[in-house]
Amino acid sequence: MDRAAQLDATSEEPSESERRVPATREVERLAAAMPSPAAGSSRGSRFAMTPLLAFSCFALLVGDLLFGYDAGSFGGLLANPGFINQFGVLGSKGYAMTSLRASLMSSLAFVGKLIGCLSSGPLIEWLGHRKVFVVLSVVSIIGIILELAAADTGNGSGRIAQFIVGRIVVYISIGLVEVCVSMYQAEIVPSSLRGFVVASLQLFLNSGSLIATGANKAYSKSTTSHGWRVVVALQFIWPIIIMIIVPFLPDSPRWLLSKDRDADAIDSLNRLRPKIDADTGANADELATIKAQLAERVHKAPWLQTLQGTNLRRTGLVVAYYTYQQITGQAFMSTYQTMFYKNNGYADQAFTYPIINAVLSIVAVLPCMLLLDTVGRRPLLLASFFGQALFLFLLAGVGGKHYKSQPMRDGCVAFFMLFSVSYSLGGAPVPYLLGAELPTHALREKTSTIGTSINVVFAFATNFALPYMLKAMSFRVGWIFGGISVTAIVFTFFFLPETKGLVLEDIDEVFSRPFNPFRTNTPNPKARPRLPHEDTGLSSRKESGSEGASAV
């Protein structure tokens, strides 16, 4: 007997008229027939992670390995002798990578990411997450082939325009990955794991960067196209793994409900949740709530509402943190660090330091994953921005001196790495979480689209401008990025409410009143009407998967 049939068996045999109930009402009939999901379900103080849920949440983060690998590997390619010989400009000292070429090759890729982000929503609605994962894998493979085919036999003969087109195509898949993976996680994960799961995205990004820095180090002395082409070709691994994984993933219950495939949605959720949730009716209640939310979306809110009333504040916060994610020095750390080391007297260690930096970044994101749902968003962001500002100022102050002793030079490397650690502690992963949980339900997709689009625009701008800034200012760019980090501290303290552990209804209440940074902004459940699921015994939607399906 399948899981949907087990649920049906707990209720009375349906009448002939009930048998004719359309599929779109199957969930409501099950929810009414099942017992109240009170203390008997798994929705206690700690949600029970099932093997399939864990696999589904984390397996597709392989796509973020692709993103992290590309960012890390391209930063190394800009300092790779063979790559420079292929795509550089011949000067008096041989081939060199000009600021213009580095800017174009790095920044134009984000045009592809913008296309991927903007097209992800319609594609997911049309095809579903699993088929979109296959599509983005094929797109990624096409882009990698274009990059590899841009090489030629002689120095200075690389087809730079083709390589840029290849990167744009790869970044279309990366844009799809960034949205599709987070949306899939959001629709299957319970809210008690929201911070942990969303922050894991940054862990995989950093892991991809670590793998890339190792590949760059292995081929750092290669003066032919062979070395850099191997580094690029290793990207084939990630889309191939995704295509192998997809057949084992369940469809999102929420997407199945949107297609009126209620029985399939019930079966999918029962596979993702502990058996006790199916037995007690918690799953039927969860699906009924999602069904009601989908019904509300028939009357979609216009884009203008993102800038009206309390939604303006929510949209402003999402845009602000997606912007800070890019303009506090991220590109300095990820894309251009190898080139920066090589051009500032650290040539012998230019491919080694990024490996150390990547390891430290992975270590730093682990406490963030563990603390987001306990310590909260505000403390981690404040600590992260403070660390970024401090170490960027130290880097600029010490590195900007005309003469630097060996201890001062070593200190500059340490400051750079500690800045990276601080960024991974909060400034990198938390914006993804805020972009998912701050918007109101009716505007979540629109607000998220605005935020990710702004993020891509600033990524393009910083990646284009940074080679010129590094050439003109060198270490002193730390004053600029450090100053921006200070504004982020002030902004976070005075404008960002804490959303740790809050259900969607409570987040709505937080934004319905003025924010006071000097007192705890905890909502009072008595201040709002009781909700249907609260009356039926589901003690806290904070632990409900339906909230997880719509909150992240």
TrEMBL record:
Catalytic activity: myo-inositol(out) + H(+)(out) = myo-inositol(in) + H(+)(in)
Localisation per UniProt entry: Membrane
Region ranges (Disordered): 1-23, 518-552
InterPro entries (alphabetical): MFS_sugar_transport-like, MFS_Sugar_Transporters, MFS_trans_sf, Sugar/inositol_transpt
SUPFAM superfamilies, sorted: MFS general substrate transporter
Predominant location category: membrane
Membrane-topology annotation of the record: Multi-pass membrane protein
Compositionally biased region (Basic and acidic residues): 531-545
GO cellular component, one term: membrane
One GO molecular-function entry: carbohydrate:proton symporter activity
Membrane-crossing residue ranges in chain numbering: 52-69, 132-151, 163-184, 196-215, 227-249, 350-372, 378-399, 411-430, 450-470, 477-496
Alphabetical keyword list: Membrane, Transmembrane, Transmembrane helix, Transport
Family label: Belongs to the major facilitator superfamily. Sugar transporter (TC 2.A.1.1) family.
Name assigned to this protein: Major facilitator-type transporter ecdD
Species the sequence originates in: Vanrija pseudolonga
Encoding gene (name): ecdD_2
